[in-house]
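Please go through this protein, sequence plus structure tokens, and consider how the sequence yields the tokens. Keep your notes short.
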Amino acid sequence: MDVIGKKTIRELAADLVAGRITSVALTQQMLARAEAHRAQGGFAYVSLDGEQALAEARASDAARAAGWVPSPLAGIPVSIKDLFDVKGQVSSAASLALAGGPPADVDAGAVARLRAAGAVLLGRTNMSEFAFSGLGLNPHYGTPRNPHDGARVAGGSTSGGAVTVALDMAAGALGTDTGGSIRIPSAFCGLTGFKPTAASVSLAGAVPLSRSLDSAGPIAHSVDCCAILYAALSGKEVADGVSALKGLRFGFTLDYVGTHVEPQVQRAFDAALDKLRQAGALVERFDFPELLELPGINGGGGLVAAEAWHWHRALLEEKGAQYDQRVAARIRRGQQQGAADYIDVLDARARLIAIAQQRLAPFDAWLMPSVAILAPEVAPLEADDATFFATNGLVLRNASVINFLDGCALSLPCHADGELPVGLGICGLAGADDTVLQIGRAVEALLRGSGKE
């Protein structure tokens, strides 16, 4: 009997408490789905660790029988992006250049926290090589396809992680987000993704992309799922409450993030704003013209290229031929930046963060389309570099603003049934994680038809 059925983490935890399922049965079914996915040509997982996962599930069931249940994640299977260290496994970041490296001696900080919470680790998920693309293409390990339309991308860089959740091959996925790599695949796959404030979740033991912008967080089926995972990852208490929407003040801007939005995305975003207004929230347009400076600030590759080049320069010299050459080209842009250029970007970032604090002060949250376009088709991206780079830039545009401003953000599904998924971004500045999650619960309930004013 199938015991998964798109259930949330809390629903699965309740089933475990009631004895309707066991962690072993849950793990077996998710592993079976993952094996079937691979057999059918799917590329969500780079590797599965079925034997170890079942051992962890048996241990979880025994601990539960003895009265030890460390968290709601106890016995729940999750997937791990292939750039986090897992003891005894190689962290390749879905690149051939690292595939022959030594196994990790210890778990990454985020992985260790998931273990401590009792989660079962199913395997390592596919991704854009070195997390350096919002599209999720990977010429080495295959490109995970969108569960809603196999001709389209799943989104990156946490492409495989999103697909594992969407197809019930994991109850949640651990991902990273440097410019939208959690929220983009969540938006494209009809899931919920949370990019926390960068400093709140450890990145120790993770292959870096940008030390200034990297953050780690979850992809799952609901805001509550993300809150449970975030609590485990951060060690922070997360409130269970739902904000009343009536009287909350939401802001949106047409500056930068509101331009060149695909019609279906715009309709879904506008419909979400209308529902919020009907629920008694105040939804107001505000001006943020300084966002229009971002293309110029990052014109030389920005912090990502500079910091990626610092980490990759020796590896590129030794194994550059083994890289996805599109990724290598983007990293090498960092070689052209001097120290003064880098400091200029840091100064511009600090200035825009200060401006954002003023612009957003009147609002409880900032709303925007998570991604300006629908999930694009794979074939044109594979065939043409110009199409790839232009599309990648547009896909990353909205989400990357929050990383540059050192903020936090949720992406919630807000599309109509039968249409391709669209994401609604609910955003805040650094440290607003709990507020964004509480507001997200209320907005999610409203969009799903169960919200109250």
About this structure: The first helix runs from residue 9 to 18. The CA atoms of residues 18 and 107 lie 31 Å apart.
